[in-house]
Design brief:
The chain has 100 residues and is mainly alpha-helical. It has two domains: 46 residues, Pemi-like Protein 1, Chain: D (Ribbon); 43 residues, no CATH class. Helices cover 41% and strands 10% of the residues. The chain contains four helices and two strands; from the N terminus they run H-E-E-H-H-H. Strands 1-2 form a two-stranded antiparallel sheet. Strand 1 and strand 2 form a beta hairpin.
Length: 100
């Protein structure tokens, strides 16, 4: 019997290779994580359509946040130009969480 994976202090868990293969999970693939009321956590690969919908949701949330906060003085066109930069640039913006 395989040992149970442990959660790291960063909240990361390694999924055993057999489970990844059975679920069709690949490195870098977007996933959905759902915590149920009974304590079970479900993880599944997003479909391409779900992945695109999530990207649009994150874009809209980011646009709303940036335009509502005083650290950004530009208009929507300037923001769109800004977001074409790598995601790491956003991680330097205090208080912005693209995953919320």
């Amino acid at each position: 019997m395989a040992t149970a994976p442990l959660m790291t202090t960063k909240g990361q868990v390694t999924i055993h290779k057999a489970a990844r293969e059975r679920a069709g999970l690949r490195p870098g693939q977007p996933v959905s994580v759902t915590a149920r009321d009974d304590g079970v956590v479900e993880l599944r690969a997003l479909t391409p359509e779900e992945n695109e919908a999530e990207r649009v949701r994150r874009f809209k949330a980011g646009l709303a946040w940036v335009l509502a906060n005083p650290i950004f003085d530009g208009d929507a066109d300037e923001y769109i130009a800004l977001i074409e930069e790598p995601l790491e640039d956003f991680e330097r913006v205090p208080g912005f969480d693209p995953y919320s």
